[in-house]
Specification:
The chain is an alpha+beta fold. The chain has a domain at about 30-100. It has helices at about 10-20, 35-45, 110-125, and strands at about 1-5, 25-30, 50-55, 60-70, 80-90, 95-100. A hairpin with a 5-residue loop joins strand 5 and strand 6 (about 95-100). The protein is globular and about 40 Å long.
Length: about 120
């Protein structure tokens, strides 16, 4: 089972529950809610951030991801994987999406995990 959740759920209790129940998750993460997480991700100091660029017609998607960083400073042992997608389409505003997940991220699966994350919004709306 994989839970695909909005940013209200990207907190330690939910992530710990998913781990206990052996459930996969893809959860929206907002920078205003996760300053510690985003600082690690942007600085890349203790983690290796990888990038994949995909172009399809007028749309360019940049996938950036890293595995095994702290969700927050209050729970230093709670590690998550972070996936960011920046979508640039000619004559449209740039869109950015970020998720935390327990899927091990790689060049081979970044686009598929992002698709899973976006599916929640599409279903909801």
């Amino acid at each position: 089972m994989c839970l695909v959740l909005d940013g209200l759920h990207s907190k330690a209790p939910i992530i710990e529950l998913c781990s206990e129940q052996k459930m996969k998750y893809v959860i929206v993460a907002k920078s205003k809610d996760h300053k510690h997480l985003f600082k690690q991700f942007e600085e890349g100091s203790d983690c290796l951030t990888q990038e994949v660029i995909e172009t399809n017609g007028d749309t360019k998607k940049i996938y950036r991801f890293t595995n095994g960083i702290e969700l927050n400073a209050s729970n230093p042992g709670l590690l998550v994987n972070v996936l960011e997608v920046v979508e640039q389409t000619r004559n449209k505003p740039i869109r950015k999406f970020v998720w935390v997940t327990n899927y091990q991220l790689s060049e081979a699966n970044a686009a598929k995990i992002a698709e899973m994350g976006r599916s929640r919004w599409k279903i909801e709306n």
